[in-house]
Design goal:
Blueprint: E1 8-14, H1 20-30, E2 34-38, H2 40-43, H3 46-54, E3 61-65, H4 67-76, E4 81-86, H5 89-97, E5 104-109, E6 117-118, E7 124-125, H6 127-138, E8 142-145, E9 154-155, H7 156-163
Parallel strand pairs: 1-4, 1-5, 2-3, 2-4, 5-8
Antiparallel strand pairs: 6-7, 8-9
Helix pairs in contact: 5-6
Length: 165
């Protein structure tokens, strides 16, 4: 049987982007050496790009892309394992619409913002996030909450439906 040419892709939404859980626990668990931060906001801030890149060990390849740059880079990417980090749910939808094959998403952290409600101690969603999650579900993007690899995965759509009963 021929091996898949599609890279192993782990997609995480975490408004903190790079931090200890990502750099130590998730990278080790996934056996990845390549991280792409996909954020128009971060990409537009040269000092943030420098700070993000300086936050990872030298044996990790970290790139900071705008959504459009990530879509262009995706068409040329030939690696086997890749972690994509987004800071907003809306960016996942845009990446999907730009033909980045996002099939599942890990919600690792969305901090409290005025008007948001807690799904877990680390994931808060507001009205726009709820709408975006419905759009993700309609596109068939599986979405789970899992802070660390050994934590149980929580299906976000089932969880939200259970809370709304």
């Amino acid at each position: 049987m021929m091996a898949s040419l599609e890279p192993d892709l782990f997609v995480r939404v975490d408004d903190r982007l790079i931090h200890g859980q990502v750099v130590t626990t998730w990278v080790k668990h996934l056996s990845t050496r390549v991280i792409w931060v996909v954020s128009d906001r971060a990409r537009a801030e040269p000092i943030e790009v420098v700070l993000l890149k300086s936050s990872v060990p030298s044996d990790l390849a970290l790139e900071v892309f705008s959504l459009q740059e990530a879509a262009c880079a995706w068409s040329r990417f030939s690696g086997r394992r890749l972690m994509l980090l987004f800071e907003r749910l809306e960016d996942v939808i845009q990446a999907f619409d730009l033909s980045i094959p996002v099939h599942s998403v890990n919600l690792g952290g969305l901090r409290y913002r005025p008007g948001s409600v807690a799904l877990t101690k680390a994931v808060y969603v507001g009205e726009q996030d709820s709408h975006t999650l419905r759009c993700m579900e309609n596109r068939g993007i599986r979405t789970t909450i899992q802070l660390l690899p050994h934590d149980k995965k929580i299906d976000v759509y089932e969880f939200i439906r259970g809370k709304s009963r």
